[in-house]
Amino acid sequence: GRKYVLTKYFDGEPKKSDFNIVEEELPELKDGEILAEAEYISVDPYMRAYMIGYKLPTDMIGGQVAKIIASRNDKYPVGKFIAGAFGWRTHTVCNPAAPPKLGFLPLTILPDLGQHPVSLGLGLLGMPGNTSYFGLKEICMPKPGETIAITGAAGAVGSHVGQIGKIIGCRVIGFAGTNEKCDYLTKQLGFDHAFNYKTSDVKAALREGAPKKVDCYFDNVGGEISSTIMSHMNHFGRVAVCGSISSYNDKSLPKVTILQPSIVFKELKVEGFLVNRWFDRWEEGINANLKWLLEGKLKYEEKTYHGFDNMVDAFVGMMRGENTGKAVVKVKS
Length: 333
Ligand code: NDP
Fold this sequence. Notes:
- The structure is a single chain.
- The chain has helices at about 45-50, 125-140, 155-170, 180-190, 200-210, 225-230, 260-265, 280-295, 310-320; strands at about 1-5, 20-25, 35-40, 60, 65-70, 80-85, 90-95, 110, 145-150, 170-175, 195, 215-220, 235-240, 270, 300-305, 325-330.
- By secondary structure, the protein is α/β, with parallel strands linked by helices.
- It has 2 domains: about 1-125 and about 300-330, Medium-chain alcohol dehydrogenases, catalytic domain (Quinone Oxidoreductase, Chain A, domain 1, Alpha-Beta Complex); about 125-275, 3-Layer(aba) Sandwich (Rossmann fold).
- Helix 2 (about 125-140) packs across helix 3 and helix 2 crosses helix 8 (about 280-295).
- The model has no long low-confidence stretch (mean pLDDT about 95).
- It binds NADPH dihydro-nicotinamide-adenine-dinucleotide phosphate (NDP).
- NADPH dihydro-nicotinamide-adenine-dinucleotide phosphate binds near residues 46 and 242.
């Protein structure tokens, strides 16, 4: 097998030279163990933010969907697809009862997806899907008729949150980085409004898109736009602080802008969360999203990069906004 080992801390955008690709010997399977071959590996924003906490060199973290190609465990037969936090590696030997923890993804066997690709185990039916499901439901607690604002709206999490918002019966407005992404959100996914945050006046956009102001803000990006959205919220609004991608690559940016007056005077509830909080309810989220998918209520787009050697390009491309929906790497190009 082959794996990525991080040898330098990221400085600005990740670079190929921050990693070594290392060959590794695969051990013989012991009783209870499986050998899984990576089919799709995920590139996610948290990878950019998290590696600072690891001592180097270290195996690169990340979720993957892998096919079981050898097994000494009856519950995990050859041919099944699993999702797990195996990191950026082509082959993994493990006992599913004590899986690797190179990322935020409990080991699960994928359900039968019919005509849908198994890569959904990294997006709509995986960690981002559950981030959307639990983050919106548990932190924002939207009620029918309320207005939800979403930043990073065309990405894996944002596009999913907006669609759940519509299923619940809310007005949904999104902010994304290109006009094409905004068209996709309104024309394909049913968002009520979508604005290009790079070219539009966010205050004017909020007045137009949220005339009754914002009740729930699902924050994927942080920074200045979050302050502006919070200043356009209703009393007792709820903010789910999911991510702050606007600052992940940029050391020079202040990590906080001035938010406090809106929080106090509008009595907002602002709560950060990590999706692992709901690991014990993981199946609930997967099943809810799967049901909506099969009913045609949830749509998805993926940006597929090709080849294990192109992991870093995929990672950087996702951080730059090349993706609509979930960014994944198909391991064999
Ligand atoms: P996305 O699929 O949304 O991909 C990242 C997107 O971020 C890009 O496509 C780009 O879209 C946008 N982006 C990049 N730079 C900036 C910037 N400076 N300002 C605004 N937007 C930017 O990724 P995910 O859906 O996987 O993740 C979205 C967010 O959710 C991230 O912040 C991530 O850290 C967080 N997250 C948190 C979890 C948790 O447990 N709390 C779990 C999973 C994700 P555009 O063209 O619109 O700029």
